[in-house]
Amino acid sequence: MTDITKTFRAIIKAKQISSDFNLGLSKRSKKNEKISTGFLSQAKIILSDITKLKYSLLESRTNYLSPIYLLSSTNKIMNDEQRHDYEQHVERQIKRCRDNLEELKSSIGLICFQGQRRAHFELVCAYLERDLVECTKIYSEQKCLRYKRESERKKIGRLDNDVLRVTLSANKNKTENLVENAKNENNSEIIVTKISQFDADEQEHQIPSAPLKSTELHQLQLENDRLYHDVAQRSEEIHAISTQVVEIAQLQNELFDNIFSQKDLIQNVDAAAVASNDDLAAAIIHIRDAIRNTAQMRRWMTETSSSESDVEETEDDNVLPISSHVNIVHGLKTVSCLTLDSNGIRMITGGHDETMKMFDFTSMDKHFQAFRTIQPCPGRLLRAIEYSANNDMILIVPGDCQAIVVNREASGKHIVYKTVLGDMYVKDMNRTKGHKALLNYGCWNPSVNSQEFMTCADDCTLRLWSLNKRDQQVDVIRTKGESGRDVRTTTCTYSQSLYSNENCNLIAAGCENGNILVWDRRRSFVHVTFKCVNAHLQDHSITALKWSYDSQILASRSTDHTLKIWDIRKFNQCLSLHENLPNQFSMTNISFSPNDQFLVTGVSKLNNLNESDSGGKLVIFNRNDLSKPVEEILFNDSVIRTNWHPKLNQIFATTNNGLVRAFYDEERSPMAGVRLCLNRKERKDKSTNDFIANINPLDSSEPIEETHEIYPEKNPQGDKKSSSLHQHIVQKMTRPNFHEKEDPRAEILKHAEEAERNPKWVTPAYVHTQPKPIFQQQLDEEEGDNDDFVPIFKKARKN
């Protein structure tokens, strides 16, 4: 039974209101009638909209649910697109009615604040809300039933997929949520309905039909049988198609399994291809280096391996490669830069004349002429030049704020990379993209295939650069003293090792206050890993730091005229030192020997009265004891840069007078480097002519000078010279045509008589037009004044 308590109360309140009108409250009644009339008119509009919506839902239920959905999608009264439009229309109607009802509820407070009228209006709104919830429930149930039947149709056809199932479940949940929301919005307990009510309403609206005749029933029976037969036949077809679809699905699963298994194989092949590509690129580089080498260089490689083993096994002082030397001229000013590639094929020098000269030992003769001279930074002194580990690039550090990297040949567009200039107005060095003060030194990372290099400058920083990052540096390292203030950095170096990878991640820097700082790349650069305070005297800058090849010993050179070595395992204590080594150049460096037993450095020239000790020196020390030098080589000028090449076993030293002196040993040093150039003869200039003669064929009275010899004398030693087949053929063809000491004029006059008998050029042209030659008449001296016989351009000018 339905609860009519609220209805009864509403009727009682309506009667009370009508009795109040009968009591004679005319004015108030008129005003309330106007207010109630507007409210009730709005309520009637909402009720009519809800009623229309309800009837439309009940009428379109059959078309919307499509009772013949099992036959075909083409027989549906509504297709999917029409259903979608119908659902959107119904949802808009429900939303509009709900909004109008909310506005009607909010207007109750403006009409009356309390009393029976307010209760009546609230009750009207409650009834309207109940009807709206019923319409919402009817729509949600229809939608749920449609999705359910649609899912059943899909399952029968065995064509449903996971995506559609998820969509149907989502739509079902959505409709259930709509019903729950509609129930939650109803504040009263009146809204209760069932799906049976809709069936009853549908039966009420159905039109009664007349009874069918026997013929019609028979016809309907036949049609029903035919339809049943069609449905059965189509069901069999659907079953056959479903079996095929199942087989296709199984094949697809197998195909997917095979594809996933092949994915790993493809990744492995890709990784192998990338690795082989890298190996191929490295192999191409090695092949190019091998092509550049001659037969002598290949012989040198075998001698180098044997000589290195011999040098490493012996510790005798007589193995120093200083028995012979040659001088290579760079210029007239100080040579402050010196570098050789790892193979010992090329050498580069640079100095205060702003020029960089490149020498190739495989193509030079005994005069040691550079094959290329350039000015990489016009107007700037060169402070450091160094080859990369792969010898394919060259780092140039000028007396400027920006370092540059050029290719191996330094030709064409040779500048490969140029460091960024820092912002002069930014004080924080970590925020600038580059150096903002003059550079002091720079060096490459010794790791193979590394594209990283390091520079230090007067802005108290070390900066790590990469060729792959062109907009700014990779890392910034600030050098500070004990008080925390920034200290100018004068030199820097990477650790290197030829025998192991131990301590290959260390970076060392020398400061102006004499401190040596060491960082580990595996840690943050904020804190120093090793620090040696007052390694050299304060106010004396450190000019060079050099790691030994075992990366255990660090040698330092300073302007306090000392040379010291340090053990990284006990960094606060100096192992050995040597004093009284004058150093007046900030580019003076140190080099270790290939066997890591000796080290060499240069000594500057002093301008004092004692001439015996005033010259420069090249001093060689034993690594274990620096108290006394093993060897001293005197120079007339200061020695600045030194390089003891590990493969050539030759020592190179630069001076302040523009010379580079190379020391070698004929027995210990391999046939490479400067030794390749000693036995080569001077190459003849291409502009000079081999045939030179002084011939005047018009004057026979002049004595004929003897011509120079066309071919040089045969080599008495019988040395064989390499020549091509083309040169050999040309020499055989041209050499018999020339004879030594012959008269060219006499050879020409031999053919005079033959030319008169058989003219070939001038005479045959006048055979028909002028068979008898006519020559110009000889004018007498008296007739020479006649202007008629004188050409116009030779006539005398009349004044």
UniProtKB/TrEMBL annotation:
Tell me the InterPro entries matching this sequence.
Syntaxin-18_N, WD40/YVTN_repeat-like_dom_sf, WD40_repeat_dom_sf, WD40_rpt, WD_repeat_GAD-1
The WD repeats are found at 535-569
Start and end residues of each stretch annotated as Disordered = 777-799
Q: Boundaries of each SNARE-complex protein Syntaxin-18 N-terminal domain copy? A: 2-85
Which UniProt keywords are listed? Repeat, WD repeat
Please give the Pfam families that the UniProt record associates with this protein. Answer: Syntaxin-18_N, WD40
**Compositional bias of type Acidic residues: which residue ranges?**
779-788
Q: Which GO terms describe its cellular component?
A: nucleus; site of double-strand break
Name the SMART domains for this protein.
Answer: WD40
Family membership, please give it.
Answer: Belongs to the WD repeat GAD-1 family.
Q: Which PANTHER family match?
A: GASTRULATION DEFECTIVE PROTEIN 1-RELATED, WD REPEAT-CONTAINING PROTEIN 70
Q: What is this protein called?
A: SNARE-complex protein Syntaxin-18 N-terminal domain-containing protein
What organism does the record attribute this protein to? Adineta ricciae
* Organism ancestry: Eukaryota, Metazoa, Spiralia, Gnathifera, Rotifera
